[in-house]
Every structure is written in structure tokens, then in C-alpha cells.
């Protein structure tokens, strides 16, 4: 069922596509966030790493540097090492960051530990190596100490040098008046007590939660150093969410386009074929690919084109054949009318009148045959299938044929009277009548009629055989064409118009069966057998369903 429905394939494809895009989006977010988290860590450490490395660089001797680093480690409660640069292998990106006076950050996701590698100005043989297990609020309060230590070398020029080092910080550094800050009474009291503050603020803006660190100035109680606000790391910021959403929609659009294109291409093929059909060209056929609805549409179009082309060709052939068939009786009637006008003898006039009447009857018969053939050829006739006793049909045709005094023997083979088939009585009678009449014209002495139901196929059949000359293999298909006559004994002198077998062929088609012709094994002449389904549906099953 799945492979036979293009719509189910599209729906299933959409579900699979959504799942794949969701997985892709998740992995993409993880990769992007990993990079963002690394950049966030680096941005947090760049400024303070610069200040710390500057503090180490100002120490004149190696011992002073080691002592300064030891004090800083105790203050931050983090291990800090003064290492030989040859002991640390740096990547090209890390080397470039250190050359730009930034810290190289290595993060161990399994242990949750970050390692900072900082260069020291004027001391390329050594690096400052810091291990950060965690960053607590107490450690954050200590950070302003390193900035004050840097600014202590520039008394009275704090704000000027604060602006100079601002380029190393991605968050803001400023010296503000306490009165300009929205502090509550507790926070104000702690500032007055020379305590550093860490302030968290939630915001509905894109930045989200931010952290600010406030440190009072030692020589000015009304001013404080403000570090921040520093935004907390947001795993799904608006820009990232919007970007991933748009990318996912774009991928879904591409996927949907890829699913629709095959159907669009097939519809375009059918549409182009229909446009060509409108011009009168019936030769184009649409390729049938697969087993889905579009393949069914293409197959239906091809069948329709075949049928229309066959109808047009049959109509042309019918017109040519009809015009040819009508000429002979019309010519005879015209000739008889001329003879009648010149004839004075009463008996001869009566004879001419009878000949005209026969020709008119022949015309009526021809018109009836043409109307029957056209009705069966142009479309589905109105068929009323019913249960029929097959013997009754065959016996009726035999009786009607024998009444014509053809001087031929008609034999009805033994057929049980309880054989019941489903068929349209009128058309089944016409089949047996046409086949029997055809056999009467070409047989020598005997025509044999039989019927029944094949046990192994469940197909009903009627069979008419004769002891005539038969039909050659190369002519057996052609005899079912309208107005077809063979060049042997089946000539115009035999009578008929060449429509009887064509009508039988079309009736067999609309019955859902077929008509075969071969050589009679018992009589030696032609044998015609028409097969069709004995039952059009399972009545037993229907009754059980209703029960």
C-alpha cells in the first residue's frame, strides 16, 4: 500500500524529514553552543587576564613575580603557576591569542575544569597557568582588587587608564557615583562598609540575566568601580533560535520541494500530453513509472488515448466501409426504380418491387448492424447482468436457426440444464446467434454448438464449430475487424457485412472476457469460443456479510 500511494510517501517523507531536520537542528545548536561557550569563557577572562599578566610583568625579579602570583592565588583561591613556556604546547590559535594579549582557555568538559594560559609582557620564556575549578561569588568579589592594583600606579588618572584597558574587556568598566546606582539600603550599607558587591539582575530583554560587580574607591566614599553588567551565558539566545528556525524551515522547504518535484514532473507530462492531444495528435504516450496514483493517472491517460485513437480510426474505417456497403443496395434500388418506370408488364413490376423491398430490408439489416457495432465500440453499453440458464440460450438460437431452413445440421452438445451463468441475455443471445450464423454460411454440413463453465478457471463459455474450410492462422486476428472479409471461401457471396464477429468481439470485451478462434478438433473447420466470468461477484460471501 505504501509504494502504491504517492501521498502516503509524501506524508511519510515529511515525517522523516521533520525528524532529520530536528536532529540536525539539535546537533547544530550543540556545535554552535560549544563554540559560543568557548568564546564566552574567553571573553570573561580576556580583560582580567590582561590585568593579572600586567601585575606580574611589573614585578622586577623572578622571586617577586612568584610571590605576587602566590598572593594572587591565595586571594582567588585558585592554583596559579609560573611555568616555563617550553613545557606548554600551544595551538596556533592559542599562540595567536597570547600574542594579542589575551588568555588561551582550555576547557575539560568531563571534569568541568577550565585552564587559563596567559603571556607575560617582557617575559616570553614563561607563561602564567591558572586552573579554575569553579567561579564563586567570593572569587568574583576579588576581581576588582586586580584592577585597583593596576590603577594604583596611576594616582589621579584612574578613569583615564580605566578607559585605556577597556578594550581588553567585553563588558563595561566605569567609575560611578553611588547616588546614580539603583541600590537598596542593604547594598548601600555594604558599600559604605567597604565591601564589594555582586548584583544579579533579571531582564526581559535579549541579554537576559546579568551580573555586575561593585567595588568602593578607597579615596572616595561616594564613588565605586562598576564591572559590568556581564550577561550570563544564554544557551538559546533569540538570534540563535531565529537562525536555527529559519535554517530548519529552509531545509524543510527544500525537502518538501524534493518530495513534490517528482509528482509535479509527472503532472506536467500529463498536462503536456493533454495539450498535444487538443491539437489532434493522439500518438503521444506518458511514461508509466512506479505503481502509485501518478502512475495510475499516466496509465489511465494512455488507455484513454488508445481508446480515443481506436475510436477515431474505427470511425474512419466505419465511414469508409459503410459508404462502400451502401453503394451496392442503393445502386440496385436505383436500377430497379429505373426498370420499374419503363416496365409495363404487371408481373415484372411486382417482381421489381419485391427486389426493391429485399434491398431495403438489406439496408435495414446493415443499419441495425452498424448501430449495434457503434454502440458497443464507442463506450460502455448499459448492461443488465442476470442469472441465465445457459442451455435455454443455446437451444433458442438452434431453434431459430433451424426455422430458417438452411439445409444444414445444427447439433447442440449435451449441456446440463442447471448450468447458470451471469450475463446480459440480449447480448449473449446475439453472440451465439452471430457465431452460429457465421458457421452456417461457411460450413459444409454440420454446425456444433456447446457451452458450460470451466471448473479450473470458473469461466463460462460458449463454443460454435463447423466442418468448413476453417481460418488460416494469419487471418484469425483480422476477422474480428469491422467489415473484414477474407480472400478465401469467406467472400461476399457468402452474405453478411463483416460486422458480426466484430460485434461478438466487443460484447466479449464488455463482458470482461475474450473471444478465441482456432481449428475444431472434431469437425476440422473453424471453432469460435467466447469466455467470460460466470459470476461477477461472490453471492455466498455477500449473503454471509448480510447475515
Automatic annotation (TrEMBL):
Residues 263-313 form the HAMP domain. SMART domains: HAMP, HATPase_c, HisKA. One of its GO terms (molecular function) is phosphorelay sensor kinase activity. Residues 321-536 form the Histidine kinase domain. It is found in: Cell membrane. It catalyses: ATP + protein L-histidine = ADP + protein N-phospho-L-histidine. Signal peptide: none annotated. Gene3D superfamilies: 1.10.287.130, HAMP domain in histidine kinase, Histidine kinase-like ATPase, C-terminal domain. It holds the Pfam family HisKA. InterPro entries: 2C_sensor_his_kinase (IPR050980), HAMP_dom (IPR003660), HATPase_C_sf (IPR036890), HATPase_dom (IPR003594), His_kinase_dom (IPR005467), HisK_dim/P_dom (IPR003661), HisK_dim/P_sf (IPR036097), Sig_transdc_His_kin-like_C (IPR004358). GO terms for cellular component: plasma membrane. It is an enzyme of class 2 (transferase). Keywords: ATP-binding, Cell membrane, Kinase, Membrane, Nucleotide-binding, Phosphoprotein, Transferase, Transmembrane, Transmembrane helix. This is histidine kinase. It comes from Acinetobacter larvae. The lineage of its organism: Bacteria, Pseudomonadati, Pseudomonadota, Gammaproteobacteria, Moraxellales.
